[in-house]
UniProtKB/TrEMBL annotation:
Protein name: 2Fe-2S iron-sulfur cluster-binding protein
Transmembrane feature ranges: none
Gene3D superfamilies reported for this sequence: 3.10.20.30, [2Fe-2S]-binding domain (1.10.150.120)
Family annotation (InterPro entries): 2Fe-2S-bd, 2Fe-2S-bd_dom_sf, 2Fe-2S_ferredoxin-like_sf, 2Fe-2S_ferredoxin-type, 2Fe2S_fd_BS, Aldehyde_Oxdr_Iron-Sulfur, Beta-grasp_dom_sf
């Protein structure tokens, strides 16, 4: 008997479980868009170069066009449809709106998912390729425009809205810092 080329998987997306049968070659991106109607996540290059398909898997940025759906089983997946907090936009979403961090909007879901993770990665002290002092005792580097551009460099914007995108990330990061300081006080 020929080996089966499909499997039944249960994907945990935005806190909801979805069970579906998928061909083993199905990417997470295609499962989201074509099978589960979660079309917020966009397909740009379909080869891991543009970032339009970025989602969060266990809180880490993942280009869903390079992730097989079967490999995502049992992992916590967050798409742009799931980043809002209850009925309120996520601060990153609000900052993109307030500062016009988009033009056509096609790259925006991926930009927003990336930005959510960038802010958390930076707050956790992760260095980037442009961080001067990477010693652990140096603490998180200032989230300068250069740091933001480097950390967001996996997300391309063909409209060239990079300036307001970087400003939106900076604003949301500042709000997150203020919120963390108030919670700790
Ligand atoms: S569509 Fe996945 S990186 Fe471009
Ligand atoms: S807003 Fe159009 S591609 Fe980024």
């Amino acid at each position: 008997m020929a080996p089966s080329t499909s499997s039944t998987v249960t994907l945990n997306i935005n806190g909801e479980k979805h069970t579906l049968s998928v061909d083993h070659r199905t990417t997470l991106l295609d499962a989201l868009r074509e099978r589960l109607d979660l079309t917020g996540t966009k397909k740009g290059c379909d080869q891991g170069q543009c970032g339009a398909c970025t989602v969060l898997v266990e809180g880490r940025r993942t280009v869903s066009c390079l992730q097989l759906a079967v490999a995502a089983e049992g992992r916590e997946i967050t798409t742009v449809e799931g980043v809002a907090e209850g009925g309120r936009l996520h601060p990153v979403q609000q900052a993109f709106l307030d500062l016009d961090g988009f033009q056509c909007g096609y790259c925006t879901p991926g930009q927003i998912c990336s930005a959510v993770a960038v802010i958390e990665e930076h707050a956790a002290g992760w260095p980037s390729a442009v961080t001067d002092d990477v010693r652990p005792e140096a603490g998180p580097p200032p989230l300068t425009p250069e740091e933001i551009r480097e950390r967001m460099s996996g997300n391309l914007c063909r409209c060239g809205a990079y300036t307001p995108i970087a400003e939106a990330v900076a604003r949301a990061a500042a709000q997150a810092r203020t919120g963390a300081e108030e919670a700790a006080a």
